[in-house]
Amino acid sequence: QIEELIEADLKEEENEDALFEEYTLLANARELLTQSSQALEEVDVARQCSTKIQNTLQVMEKYALDLKEASKMIKEAQLLFEEMQIALQSFQAKLESDPGRFLYLEEHLRLLDHLKKKYGQNPLKRRKEMEDELEAIENLDEREEGLKKALIAAKKDTAAEARFLRETRTKGAAELEQKLSMALKKLNIQAAKIKIQVLPAMRTKTGEDEVIFYLRANKGEQEVSVRESSSGGELSRLLFALKIVLAEKERPKTMIFDEIDANVGGETARLIGEQLKKLGISRQVLCITHFPQVARQGDHHICVSKSENKERTEGQIKMLSKKEREVELLRMLGG
């Protein structure tokens, strides 16, 4: 296929519309030559008549000065007739200059039409694409070797990054174990001990480690996998403790807790409330809770309720005053 396009020898500067216009002109050359010859004869007659008119006006100018303008116009007309003669003669020469040009254009336009049907509206562009594809195929071995080297280098780099990530995680795990254990003790798990294992795993975009959290909730027990054995209350407190520890490092401006006190008892809820209050000293904390022990720690109390009418259920949100807050806390305490 590419040989066909190379043999066609298309040029970027070729304008198909201009070629077709020239082809149409040459296709009607015989008729145009006849018409242009007739036009030349008529222009010559007109030029001769204008010469006679000019001579007459020159004689009349001697007695009528206002004919000077007419004499000037006839001179200009003569010049126009001469330019018309030159243009028509040039046009005839163009039609007669190259008898083989018409055959070339006819064949070339037919070839263009064939190539466009076969390769699309821009055969020259397609030729360049095919040449690039051919070059890529011819250099396939070289490219393959280059890709192999790049892959080896990439594997080496990612392996180094994975080792660094594991070392960082292992070091961070030891620090996080201590901080989480302390945070859980403040949340009413007095014997809490967290153990974090960083184990080898298949490489993914996050590294080649599996991180497993273990929790000992009661004295004398073994650490067990949080994912497999922890209760709902333990999970709630562990998640909250993790949020507290990470907040010291990340320092978010706003923290949102949605029933972080779920599955815990009243004393634990009080401790969670106190921790939330501490968090709120340096940032905005929003907490959704059903525990009065938690709600009473907030600087503001927003009551969310719902009511039903005949057609639908509607929700209401209200900022409580001091007196309204006391009433709401008593309601929450009473269930």
Q: What would a concise description of this structure say?
A:
With 335 residues, the protein is an alpha+beta fold. The protein contains twelve helices and seven strands. The two termini are 84 Å apart.
Topology:
Layout: H1 2-8, H2 16-27, H3 29-61, H4 68-96, H5 99-119, H6 123-138, H7 140-185, E1 193-204, E2 207-216, E3 224-225, H8 226-229, H9 232-250, E4 254-258, H10 266-279, E5 284-288, H11 292-295, E6 302-308, E7 313-319, H12 322-334
Parallel strand pairs: 4-5
Antiparallel strand pairs: 1-2, 2-3, 6-7
Explain what the structure shows:
This protein has helices at 2-8, 16-27, 29-61, 68-96, 99-119, 123-138, 140-185, 226-229, 232-250, 266-279, 292-295, 322-334; strands spanning 193-204, 207-216, 224-225, 254-258, 284-288, 302-308, 313-319. With 335 residues, the protein is α+β, with helices and mostly antiparallel strands. It has three domains: 2-138; 140-230, no CATH class; 251-335, P-loop containing nucleotide triphosphate hydrolases (Rossmann fold, 3-Layer(aba) Sandwich). The strands form three sheets. It has a three-stranded antiparallel β-sheet. A hairpin with a 7-residue loop joins strand 2 and strand 3 (224-225). Helix 2 crosses helix 5 (99-119), helix 3 (29-61) runs antiparallel to helix 4 (68-96) and helix 7 (140-185) crosses helix 9 (232-250). The two termini are 84 Å apart. The model has no long low-confidence stretch (mean pLDDT 85).
